[in-house]
From TrEMBL:
The lineage of its organism: Bacteria, Pseudomonadati, Rhodothermota, Rhodothermia, Rhodothermales. Its EC number is 6.1.1.22. This is Asparagine--tRNA ligase. GO terms for cellular component: cytoplasm. It is found in: Cytoplasm.
Length: 502
């Protein structure tokens, strides 16, 4: 092996052996002659027990005066301990400092989101962000497994392009030498279609860009998209692939990321229900459902339940305050920690209580022909216990390349997959138009310049076939599976209208 040290995630293979770990001090406690150092090395977290009388004076000096995020090399013997976080502990023989740390700004206490985003480069070291990035990584590998096992070729689309894909209002443009203008790609789809005509079944996996002018919990200006494109697939085949794909990803995370999900306090019961087939509803049915009495009642019930929960929490808080007076120090600490939790949940509830009446109004007055807003999608998903596939949208709200429904010309053969628990759209896709003249008409109707699409139109001139595909937004998927309420926590360095730094 290359490494002369052991990784925390491999400690299970070294019980009762002496190992050397290299990492950073995550947290510590201790008193008098004993210190408990929580070390993190990127693969996990482990408690290292340092009794003063078991180590030499140099080691004790380091352990006794060490700051959060100092880099350490720790040698000791591994013991299995069910109560220890991660299940193992290190009985330390020696501690050496590799790198000093100063007043580390991101302490284990609560910080506001703006502060955390400003310190994103350091916040990434926290346990919650460690868990999110590990799950993101597992999702990425699950994506490759899924497609590679099914005979897809990974073929990457260009990032600099001359074409708009998803409308012109969210294009990032830049000067491209002489007089040409170029864009950062909004989607690899059009090039994916060319590659599907070359290689049958392909997928692209790359960064995509949209100048999203509104700040929402679901929008980034730079995000990663996975876009399969399949020759000879119709809409239903596309939908089946999408549901198998999403179920595979969820399964992989449930199987391999138990520790990470637990670190995030993610209640996995809803994820465990993600089994195929997913329910399918047409856009028409979705509109009907939004406007139904059932939806109105569901929202009213939610409001009632939230009010009850809030009242209970406030009561608990008051009782805790009365107890706090005479309580011992460690009980006071527990009460204070619980108070932070209660306050956080009450804030969430109050925000929901402010929003829900508007959401109800928006659902009940939803008009056929409009696009679902994020809130409408949230409300829709509450009706289902697993992801739901919405299909056949009004053509006006969809892109130029969509095939029309042969049974109803007002409709485009699109599909969206909405994630449950209120997360909303994670996949958008559909069956592609194959007719050359229809596409030319659509390019004109969407005010797009035909000349930059000449290569795309060639695909309809030389062996045009029915084909379909879709795009999965990686960050929205990570956000749902990890239970984060905002996509900004699901990518190492998020880019939004308000943030280009760090
Ligand atoms: O629905 P969209 O716009 O579809 C397309 O781009 C198609 N060309 C894909 C295809 O058929 N090959 O985007 C697809 C997905 C969305 O469902 C969402 O998950 C994600 O990309 N997405 C975003 N994620 C984060 N921030 C944004 N601003 C996003 N816009 C779309
Ligand atoms: Mg979409």
């Amino acid at each position: 092996t290359i490494e002369d040290f052991t990784r925390i995630e491999d400690l299970a293979d070294h019980v009762d052996e002496t190992v050397t770990l290299k990492g950073w001090l995550h947290n510590q406690r201790g008193s008098g002659g004993i210190k408990f150092l929580i070390l993190r090395d990127g693969s996990g977290f482990v408690q290292c027990v340092v009794p003063q009388d078991a180590v030499d004076a140099d080691s004790w000096a380091v352990a006794d005066d060490v700051r959060q995020e100092a880099a350490l090399e720790i040698t000791g013997s591994v013991s299995a301990d069910e109560r220890a976080p991660g299940g193992y502990e290190l009985q330390v023989d020696a501690v050496e400092r590799i790198g000093e740390s100063g007043d580390y700004p991101v302490t284990p206490k609560e910080h506001g989101i703006d502060f955390l985003m400003e310190h994103r480069h350091l916040w990434l070291r926290s346990e919650s962000q460690w868990a999110v990035m590990r799950i993101r990584n597992r999702i990425e590998t699950a994506i490759h497994e899924f497609f590679q096992e099914r005979g897809f070729l990974q073929t990457d689309a260009p990032i600099l392009t001359g074409n708009a894909v998803e409308g012109t209002s969210t294009l990032f443009d830049l000067d491209y030498f002489d007089d040409e203008s170029a864009y950062l790609t909004q989607s690899g789809q059009l090039h994916g279609e060319a590659m599907a005509m070359a290689y049958g079944k392909v997928y692209t996996f790359g960064p995509t860009f949209r100048a999203e002018k509104s700040a929402t919990r679901r929008h980034l200006t730079e995000f990663w998209m996975i876009e399969p494109e399949m020759a000879f697939y119709d809409l239903e085949m596309n939908a089946q692939l999408a549901e198998d794909f999403v179920a595979h990803i969820v399964q992989a995370v449930l199987e391999d990321c138990e520790e990470e999900l637990e670190a995030l306090d993610r209640d996995t019961s809803a994820l465990e229900q993600v089994e195929t087939p997913f329910p399918r509803i047409s856009y028409d049915e979705a509109v009907e459902l939004l406007r139904s009495d059932e939806t109105a009642e569901m929202i009213d019930e939610r409001i009632e339940a939230l009010n009850e929960e809030k009242a209970e929490l406030l009561e608990e808080k008051e009782e805790n305050q009365t107890r706090r007076g005479q309580a011992k120090k460690h009980v006071k600490r527990k009460i204070d920690a619980r108070e932070i939790e209660i306050n956080k949940r009450v804030d969430e509830i109050e925000e929901a209580l402010r929003n829900l009446p508007d959401w109800k109004e928006s659902a009940q007055t939803f008009e056929w022909g409009s696009d679902f807003g994020g809130d409408d999608e949230t409300v829709l998903t509450w009706h289902f216990d697993r992801p739901v596939i919405v299909h056949r949208f009004p053509a006006e709200i969809k892109a130029f390349y969509m095939k029309r429904d042969p049974d109803d010309d007002r409709l485009a053969m699109g599909i969206d997959v909405l994630a449950p628990e209120g997360y909303g759209e994670i996949i958008g896709g559909g069956e592609r138009a194959t007719d050359l003249d229809f596409l030319k008409e659509q390019i004109e109707a969407h005010d797009l310049p035909e000349d930059v699409f000449d290569w795309y139109l060639d695909l309809r001139k030389f062996g045009s076939v029915p084909h379909s595909g879709f795009g999965l937004g990686l960050e929205r998927t990570v956000s749902w599976i990890t239970g984060r309420d905002h996509v900004r926590e699901t990518i190492p360095f998020p880019r939004t209208i308000a943030r280009l730094h760090p």
